[in-house]
Amino acid sequence: MIIENTAAFIQEKFATEGSGHDWPHIRRVWQVARALAAQEPGTDPEVVELAALLHDIADWKFHNGDYEAGPRAARAWLLSQQVPEATIARVEQVIREVSFKGLGVETPVSSPDAAVVQDADRLDAIGAIGVGRAFAYGGHKGRPLHDPATPPVSHESFAQYQQSTAPTLNHFYEKLLHLKDRLHTPAARTLAQERHRFMEAFVAQFLREWDSEDVAGLGGQRLA
Ligand code: ADP
Ligand code: NI
Fold first, then answer.
1. pLDDT at 77 (0 to 100)
2. Which of 50, 103, 126, 156 is the most exposed place for a label (fewest CB within 10 A)?
3. For ligand 1, which residues put their CB under 6 angstroms from it?
């Protein structure tokens, strides 16, 4: 019952989200995490499902960089549902560990539960859905699609990553194209292969169109 209640609560809360952190994202992470957990020894299905459902409840990106906002909001909800303290503490810890924190920052997991939820969240950041979500997020933040004069960088701290205002295409080099090598579970690594290839093809085609190489092929003049 607690899982159903949590799903209904989150579905309602995220019904009108337009930055890519919408209910369909959370529902996919929930379902993929559940499927990965079924193949991963040592996972606790209740902790996995609750953490997946609650992982974006109060994302630091929308709470002035406060990365305890998520665990705190999850705790308040779970307390209201009389969930035992031991379960709450484990769900909070998974939520703390799930987020990407910059290319140069390791994001180790301390439990199989955190491994599958982090993998499920990252799978939803790559592939066609990942492309869509990245540009939705960039649009939400008023970012340009691309600017060749602003090269990608490797963020060496969470603070640096949080402060980035770079064009959206940079996010592929600064995060998305690296995710397949940072997955924990074999099942997630298998799922990531096709999504990664799709993103590589997307970026290559984007840059060809940006430079109008295909137009030049029609015999037209290239613009400076
Ligand atoms: P994470 O917990 O790793 O930050 P989320 O599930 O919260 O991931 O989703 C963040 C989504 O927003 C992802 O699809 C991610 O790629 C996208 N996103 C985050 N930062 C940026 C950015 N600077 N530019 C474009 N997309 C971004
Ligand atoms: Ni997420």
1. 97
2. 156
3. 20-21, 56, 59, 98-100, 121, 125, 130, 133-134, 137-138, 164, 168, 171, 176
